[in-house]
Structures are given as structure tokens and as C-alpha cells.
UniProtKB/TrEMBL annotation:
<dbReference type="GO" id="GO:0000104">
    <property type="term" value="F:succinate dehydrogenase activity"/>
</dbReference>
<keyword id="KW-1003">Cell membrane</keyword>
<protein>
    <recommendedName>
        <fullName>Fumarate reductase subunit C</fullName>
    </recommendedName>
</protein>
<keyword id="KW-0812">Transmembrane</keyword>
<dbReference type="Pfam" id="PF02300">
    <property type="entry name" value="Fumarate_red_C"/>
</dbReference>
<keyword id="KW-1133">Transmembrane helix</keyword>
<comment type="function">
    <text>Two distinct, membrane-bound, FAD-containing enzymes are responsible for the catalysis of fumarate and succinate interconversion; fumarate reductase is used in anaerobic growth, and succinate dehydrogenase is used in aerobic growth. Anchors the catalytic components of the fumarate reductase complex to the cell inner membrane, binds quinones.</text>
</comment>
<comment type="similarity">
    <text>Belongs to the FrdC family.</text>
</comment>
<dbReference type="GO" id="GO:0045283">
    <property type="term" value="C:fumarate reductase complex"/>
</dbReference>
<feature type="transmembrane region" description="Helical">
    <location>
        <begin position="70"/>
        <end position="88"/>
    </location>
</feature>
<feature type="transmembrane region" description="Helical">
    <location>
        <begin position="32"/>
        <end position="50"/>
    </location>
</feature>
<dbReference type="InterPro" id="IPR034804">
    <property type="entry name" value="SQR/QFR_C/D"/>
</dbReference>
<dbReference type="InterPro" id="IPR003510">
    <property type="entry name" value="Fumarate_red_C"/>
</dbReference>
<feature type="transmembrane region" description="Helical">
    <location>
        <begin position="109"/>
        <end position="130"/>
    </location>
</feature>
<dbReference type="GO" id="GO:0005886">
    <property type="term" value="C:plasma membrane"/>
</dbReference>
<comment type="subunit">
    <text>Part of an enzyme complex containing four subunits: a flavoprotein (FrdA), an iron-sulfur protein (FrdB), and two hydrophobic anchor proteins (FrdC and FrdD).</text>
</comment>
<keyword id="KW-0472">Membrane</keyword>
Length: 131
């Protein structure tokens, strides 16, 4: 049995996600994976240069001091902070935390995650700078 009706196919433009703010922010957040790839490759190159000796390490450090690399690393830091912020806001919403038969909202958990992150960052920076 054949039919002469044409099925309805909704057109979808490549810019469909730009129409709503929610989708734009979602695409930006998902785009934070690109700078993360850059930083992962940079770390791997740093490990290989560290393994190859002092001359190779000195070359890597001078590469890191290039203004373009510094700008890319600042962009990577901003992307990581955005992703961290959205993750800290999302993770507690996915967990049902119940204390004494009362469901707890996500705000205390978010504040706790930020506190742990800040303390760990300060400790790591203190060790790295003053050890």
C-alpha cells in the first residue's frame, strides 16, 4: 500500500541553538571541553619535556611564557571556572540529601563544595609558592 502524502519534516537550521538563552549557555558550557583538550595536551607535553631533561624543560617553560600561550591558558582557566560553577550547581540537584526526614536544598552543598575547592586551591598554591 503506497500513500501520496508527504511526511512532515521540520526544518532545523544550523543556528537553532542561538534562539534561546538556555541553549546558548548550554552550548557555551559544553564548548568548555575544547580548552580542556588544549590544557591536557599542554600537560602531556610538559611531562614529556620534564622526562627529556633540563634543556627540554627550559624550552617548555619558555614556551609557556609566550603571550599567546598565556592568553590561551587564561581562556582555559575561565572555561574551567565556568564548568566548575555549573557542575557545583548541578550535582546537588541530582542528589536527594535527606537529614532527619527533611529534604535538604542544594545551597549548603554548593557552599561546601566551593569551600573545599577554595581551601584546596590555597593549600596547593601555598605549597607551590613557599615550599
Amino acid at each position: 500500500m503506497t500513500t501520496k502524502r508527504k511526511p512532515y519534516v521540520r526544518t532545523m537550521t544550523p543556528t537553532w541553538w542561538q534562539k534561546l538563552g538556555f541553549y546558548r549557555f548550554y552550548m557555551i558550557r559544553e564548548g568548555t571541553s575544547v580548552p580542556t583538550v588544549w590544557f591536557s595536551i599542554l600537560l602531556i607535553c610538559g611531562l614529556f619535556s620534564l622526562k627529556s631533561g633540563p634543556e627540554s624543560w627550559a624550552g617548555f617553560v619558555s614556551f609557556l611564557q609566550n603571550p599567546i600561550v598565556i592568553i590561551l591558558n587564561l581562556i582555559t582557566l575561565a572555561a574551567a571556572l565556568l564548568h566548575t560553577k555549573t557542575w557545583f550547581e548541578l550535582a546537588p540537584k541530582a542528589a536527594n540529601i535527606i537529614i532527619k526526614d527533611e529534604k535538604m536544598g542544594p545551597e549548603p552543598v554548593i557552599k561546601g563544595l566551593w569551600a573545599v575547592t577554595i581551601v584546596a586551591t590555597v593549600v596547593i598554591l601555598f605549597i607551590a609558592l613557599f615550599w
